[in-house]
């Protein structure tokens, strides 16, 4: 029972971070209609930024958010502006050349980071990295990582801010308009190209925040991007392509599934669980949670 | 027209007698790799270039083909050459249900699914140690010491894949494939069962890649999950071979395979030993730089993906007239 509750709580908290990764991905999917296969690699870049800030300037990872998010926003804007937007004008037989382009970008990001930081494992050890606090639920003592709890709370704040931005501001409305109907939005005076660039920036900033929040309790090496890219698209498919609410559900579901898989089947299966869920979703619920709720 | 027909035959003739001229094992090794990649690239081209379904899962089929051959020899003591048959069957058995799940769905599902498929098999190969030996890998004794028999087998595979592509594209099947690529709705409204024909196309991709995998096992004698199920060195390489040469062209992958194996090799050997030589001349001050260069082939692949998609969207073969036109214009000016 204790192990079960422990897994449940840990999985749920991790799911909050995954939701942050998924929202960025699903926004990009909604507006541009492409899957960004460089998503995890962008997160890896944010993690290295956080690592450098901590290691050389002794800046706390949570404060590093104020650097890593703008930096990632810039990275997203550059990627969109100089690699993806020009592709709209290229005539090619090749289908999905934009998705392929993101794969190329992902490889370049990974290898450049390997070039700078080498393949060694790195981690950020803060005073609260290994700290836990104990909770008593129904007679069962469970310990919860402090870093994970803080990360979860910040992720919730960022998610709420994102929703406020999308629902209440002019810019957010423009982004949603482009996602719904690009031509109609253009007729209403919204510049779709600018919105695409902006969305890529925001998506990158969100996944960058997730990376920075994850770093104190995780390890870091250049190839870490791949597994997170896969997680991001599993979440997006699970939640329904382009659905932000779905991404939250998808993130939490994946967090829980991975935690239970790791506890009850074996640590090796952490990633397999997600991939199998992905195939099951394609088989039984194509369209994801979005289809169930129509949100 | 006649000249165009003749070029492939002349090329085939050259390739047939090449081992008599090129006796250096190293160059034969490179040629075998090129021919293997021609097979894989052609398979990818049928599915993505002609049918419009981009696959990131070449590694899944490559690995299954290689492991079929390896496991037959290592576990059952049967010759690894039976891997060609067993591997091809195994790939088809995997491809059919996978296509049934992903092809009825529109959008990026197939591309993502194929990416996931490769990863699933990599994890299975790592985790299921009793069956696959995990990260230790599988070793098989090579049948021939000389590289020449492998060269002809690889050549036979490459020729078979290109000839079957030619035949398919001249038949009704080829027109169905292209119609699905151009406009799936229009194809469906003309009564083409799009899922079925996408599936046939996928089976071509799976078979050719699986056969190449079985060849790889027999030729190299050693595999492990990180080599044969590698996303960058197999799946992305397959894509690059096709797009560098020319998507949706018959001889594109042939050109692409030459270029890509050369690129890979230039980095791995640091300019075929040229940089090592320069390093010796200047007294070893370039040693760290050379180490970086030798590790940089994945970076080069990434940059190539970006550059090729932007500048040569139809590949060297597809954009040949445009490239020549531009060169001619420059010469005139």
Write up what this structure looks like.
The complex is a heterodimer of chains A (295) and B (333). Chain A contains 12 helices and 4 strands; from the N terminus they run H-H-H-H-E-E-E-H-H-H-H-E-H-H-H-H. Chain A is mostly helical. Chain A has one domain (2-223). In chain A, the strands form 2 sheets. Chain A has a two-stranded antiparallel ribbon with strand order 1-4. In chain A, strands 2-3 form a two-stranded antiparallel sheet. The mean pLDDT of chain A is 87. Chain B has a single domain (26-332), classed as ABC transporter involved in vitamin B12 uptake, BtuC. Chain B is 78% helix and 1% strand. Chain B has 18 helices and 2 strands. Chain B is globular, with a radius of gyration of 21 Å. At the A-B interface, helix 4, helix 9 and helix 11 of A face helix 5, helix 12 and helix 16 of B.
Task: Provide key terms for this protein.
heterodimer, A: 295 residues, mainly alpha, two-stranded antiparallel ribbon, two-stranded antiparallel sheet, 12 helices, 73% helix, 5% strand, B: 333 residues, ABC transporter involved in vitamin B12 uptake, BtuC, 1% strand, globular
